[in-house]
Amino acid sequence: MIVSNRAKTRSSVHGATLLLGALVVFAPPVQAQNAPAIPGQNRAGVRVFLWGGLKTHSVGQHDYPQFLADWSKVLTEHGAVVDGALHPPSAGDLEHADVLVINKGDAGFLTDATKGALEAFVKRGGGIVSLHDALCGPDPAYLSTIIGGAKKHGSVNYTLEAPIEYVIVDKEHPIMKDMSNFTLLDEAFYDITWAKDPAVHVLATAKMPPTPSAGEHKGEVVPQMWTYEHTLAGGQPARVFAWMQGHQYANFANYQVQRTLLRAIAWAGKKPVEELVNYVAPPRPGRGPATRGGQE
Questions:
Q1: Quick check: is 291 in a domain?
Q2: Is residue 26 part of a domain?
Q3: Residue 5 lies in a domain
Q4: Which of 153, 53, 54 is nearest to 102 (CA)?
Q5: Which tens digit of pLDDT belongs to each residue from 244-292?
């Protein structure tokens, strides 16, 4: 088939237009100096960076882009200052964050640049919230020093979908205020490399359900929620909260889970633990008080 130069030119221009459109859609917003405040935003709130990833697994599972979209709004409505990306955060990204929330599969695969940025963030006391398989990577011994517990990539180490029956073992911890024993249809991991000095503080456990992939690990009691307070050499004390579930995206909307995560993020950022849960946006001048639902 012969294509004229004019057709080639039109095709090239069309392709360039599509590329430019994609760049415009995904370019980060730039706020001009002295720009007006966003109505209802709490500029003094905990600063959160959401590290997501591309969608994996079946419909409704491991939906990292949807988490990034939804929780940027949830957290903003609860008084946080939010940034995020589907790529690893740079040192510049983390420079302006109090808490890094990781909801990305196999986040333990770190480049030297990402590892350096992450360690610098933790050394200055930055907090981390790790969700589901963010704790997976090629070097669980190293990753466990960052988030308290980690699992080896590539090994059979999951229950697949099954009822996860929570037992709250520290009901007095402020993060667990609204949490009681309950069951989620989700996934758990059982072969975890744990930090030893210091050790994690377990908040909730579950028995591994008898699925084929659990094998001989069925019935084992494994932590599902924990905190990890530690100090990297030469750094400041840092806080971590980890939640094993999140395989089924719908579970992020569970009332107990959502309020627990809001408290965990505030706690990891060394803010009052109720700061996000209890936040009420200030009244908008001339329009009455704003609400989280956006209605007045």
A1: no
A2: no
A3: no
A4: 53
A5: 999 999 999 999 999 999 999 999 999 999 999 999 887 766 665 555 5
Distance of alpha carbon 89 from alpha carbon 85, whole angstroms: 7
Residue appearing with tokens 């980890």:
242
Give the Cα separation of 81 and 69 in Å (integer): 14
CATH assignment of the domain containing 183 = 3.40.50.880
Tell me the residue range of the domain where 263 lies.
44-277
**Total domains in the fold of the chain:** 1
Angle between the 140-147 and 112-123 helix axes, to the nearest 10 degrees? Answer: 30
d(CA 89, CA 102): 10
Tokens of 44: 């003094």
Residue 235 maps to a domain = yes
What predicted TM-score, i.e. pTM, was given to this entire model?
A: 0.84
| 263 within 8 A of 174, measured Cβ to Cβ | yes
Whole-angstrom Cα distance, residue 238 to residue 76? 23
Q: What is the pLDDT of residue 256?
A: 95
How far does CA 49 lie from the centroid of its chain? 8
| Residues 272, 273, 274, 280, Cα dihedral to 10° | 60
Peptide bond just before 209 cis, omega within 30 deg: no
Tokens encoding 124: 């200055």
CA distance 205 to 32: 47
Compute and round to an integer the Cα radius of gyration of the chain: 21
Provide, rounded to the nearest whole percent, the portion of the chain with pLDDT above 90. 72
Upper half-sphere CA count for residue 277 (Cβ side, 13 Å): 22
